[in-house]
C-alpha cells in the first residue's frame, strides 16, 4: 500500500560515507622561510586515517615545501608537526628549539612515505632492489622473505614482471609505479605524493593514477599534490587550495571545484581548465 512507502533515503556521496580514523599527521601554524622569503605562512592541516587530501595551487605557492615539512625533510621555523599526536622532529619548546632524538625520528620518518615528481629511483639498483633497500637496511625483512615481500609490492603496482630491470630500462610511468611500491615498503601510515604524474608523458599518466586510485580505495591515507582533476574529483575526500604559503580554501571536491568561495581559487581553476 502507498502508505507503507517511505521516502527513499538520500544516498550520501561516497566521500562522506567514508569512515575516518584519528588524525595521523598534523601541521599547526607551520611557517618556513627559504631564501629570505616566507614560503609557508601559517599552515594548519590535519589528515585523518583513511583520508585522501588533494592539494592544489599555483606554482611557487609552497606545496612541495609543505610536504617536505610534513615528512621532516625540512625543519620548520615556527609551528609544529605532529605524527600520531606526538611532536614530530624539530619543535619549539618554551621558545627553545628541541629535536626528537635522531634514532626515534628516523624510525618515525619511515612511517611517512614519499613519492616525488621525478621518481628518484636509485639508477644502479633493479626495481626489486629499489623497493627492498630500506626494509633490508632497517632489518624489517631479510633473506628469501624479502624477495617475496618485494615481489608482492611490485605486483600491487603491476610491476612484478619487471622486478629485475633497472630504472633506465623502464618507462616513466613504470618507474613511478616502482617508486610507489618503494614508498609502501616500510608500511607507512601515510604517503605524500608530490605531483606524481606531472613529469610523465600524457599516455603514461593513467597507469600511475590507476595505482593511486586502487591505493586510495583500499584506504591508504594520502596527501597528493596534483592538478589531475579527474583523480581529485573521484578520489579526494578533501581538496585544499594553497596560495602564497597558506591554505586559503578547502572542502569536498564538488564544493571547491564547482562553487569555490575564494576569488583566488576561482582564478586558479580557470587557468588549469
Ligand atoms: P610549489 O611546490 O607550490 O610550486 P615550492 O614549495 O616548491 O612551491 O616553492 C615555494 C617557494 O619557495 C617558491 O617561491 C620557491 O622559489 C621557493 N623555494 C623553494 N625552495 C627554496 C630554497 N631551497 N631556497 C630558496 N627558495 C626556495
Ligand atoms: Mg612543487
TrEMBL record:
Domain called ABC transporter: residue spans: 25-269
Main location: membrane
Subcellular location(s) per record: Cell membrane
Entry keyword Nucleotide-binding: yes
Membrane topology per record: Multi-pass membrane protein; Peripheral membrane protein
Coiled-coil region list: none
Record's keyword terms, sorted: ATP-binding, Cell membrane, Membrane, Nucleotide-binding, Transmembrane, Transmembrane helix, Transport
Family label: Belongs to the binding-protein-dependent transport system permease family.
The protein's name in its UniProt record: ABC transporter permease
